[in-house]
Amino acid sequence: MTTTSAQTVIAPARAKTATGSATGSATVRRKQGFQHGGWFIAPFLLLFGLFVIWPLLRGIYLSFTDANISGESASFVGLDNYREALGDSAMWDALGHSAYFTLLVVPCITVLAFLLAMLAHHIERGKWLWRLCFFVPFLLPSTVAANMWQWLFTQGIGLFNETFGLTTPWLTDKSYAMLALVIETLWWTVGFSFLLYLAALQGIPAHLYEAAKLDGANAWHRMVHITLPMLRNITGLVIALQVLASLQLFDQAVVMMDFGPGPELSTRSFVQYTLEQGFTSYRVGYASAMSIIFFVIIAAVALGRMVLLRNREEGTR
To answer: 101, 269 in Cβ contact below 8 A?
Structure first.
């Protein structure tokens, strides 16, 4: 009885000591792992701070000054740049062009990427060729894609009008200039969203479709009740990424319109107008204020998407 009693008393103490030792060892291992891992992420943190954090802080500082590109000493002007920007009708017009471009591109590219992914996923012969053809345009530099479509849209010699028997002045009429940018952007960037959808389609368990077939569901019902719900998260990601990218319209608009704002300023985006203020009008302080305003808009869009996604996830629990 004495031995049993002693064992009964000693065993919990040993267990507690062992648990404490294991916890301490785990803590030490985490600290060591963090110390060693810190050296691996140090180059990224250095570059991130040098090319992202520092320019952001520098831009915030310049936005409160009347700095110009000539290098003359800048003086503090407070919120004057922000007041001027918020009252600048040209800035709001440029923001409206970026928003209009976004509203045109995002739904089209989301639907088109989904349809192309469905085609590439279900086709049997030449599957690799279809995937290659859909994704390769995304690998082209923006200037190459823009120059190519500028030539295709050129009135009189462009193949786009010749192929479809049109006489549309795509690049010289404000009614068609933005549509030309949308068509070029769809062709150039759909490959990225297509790849995301294709990967998501390949991750859907096959037994769900088999069970639906046994229950008599046709192809349409399987797509509506299985495919689309399973792609809900990836669709949200595609929409968010495309919204953020489309709001930053610049490369294709500048190149296709011969480095101008387009016919009657119809394609001048927010980014382009900001650069005009900074490098054409030499108003670096004012351009910095506009950049900060645009940064706040982009951050608000991204934050709104996160809040909506979180609320939807909580609603489905």
So the answer is: yes
